[in-house]
Amino acid sequence: MTADDHIVFIVDDDERIREALVELLDSHGMHAIAFESACDYVSADKPDVPACLVLDIELPDINGLDLQRQIADRDHPPIVFITGHGDIPSSVRAIKHGAVDFLTKPFSDADLMAAIHAAIAQDREKRAERAEIDVMRQHYLDLTPREREVLPLVVSGLLNKQAAAELGISEVTLQIHRRNVMQKMAAASLADLVRIAERLEIPITHSRRVGGN
């Protein structure tokens, strides 16, 4: 991991903690930016790289758990909570809502680094998945209106003859559209096309699926 392919955001109102964490991460070759409040973090420009948010529970402007809730619907880095006032309900709430770890001060450098590495790996994986879906979505947008009608019929498991009848076109024309759909969606097989349709959450209006009766 190089210092320019990730970032660790630190939000803690204790300047000594911020400085110590930045120094620790720097010693491990990791890039970190520290903020003293949730507001400063939220309003800051953030590089588009895999990241982790090391977040204190007690902040001057908002509780860290409340910040977690507020940003839940946005794309945000996985969170590692740190606190000097840990309790079981808070840790359960944090983990239940997706936090990678909940560390009570004083915690070991090893535990923190392990949590940060896990968070960045998780974010890297999520970003790769989003990028893959974005490519699939662009392929879908490249389909003609008729091909977008053909796709759900094909992945529902209908025979070419049945799908053609559904659209009021000839079977030969349906086969041409089906071939174009496979090529444009970069699907290697019908099963592959079914998986792509599922990941894009394309509505299927027919119940007969591949492999069904």
Average residue pLDDT: 92
> What percentage of the residues does DSSP assign to strands (E)?
5-15%
Order of helices and strands: EHEHEHEHEHHHHH
The chain-level structural class is alpha/beta
Q: How do the strands line up in the largest sheet?
A: 2-1-3-4-5
Task: Report the oligomer.
Answer: single chain
The residue fraction in helices comes out at: 40-55%
Can you tell me about this structure?
The protein has 213 residues and is an alpha/beta fold. The protein has nine helices and five strands. It has helices at residues 15-27, 38-43, 64-70, 88-96, 109-141, 145-155, 160-167, 171-184, 190-199, and strands at residues 7-11, 32-35, 51-56, 79-83, 101-104. The protein has a five-stranded parallel beta sheet, sandwiched between helices. Helix 6 crosses helix 7, helix 6 packs across helix 8 and helix 6 (145-155) packs across helix 9. The termini are far apart. Residues 209-213 have low confidence and may be disordered.
Briefly, what is this?
By secondary structure, the chain is of the alpha/beta class.
Short key terms for the protein model shown above:
about 210 residues, alpha/beta, five-stranded parallel beta sheet, 5 strands, about 50% helix, about 10% strand, elongated, disordered C terminus
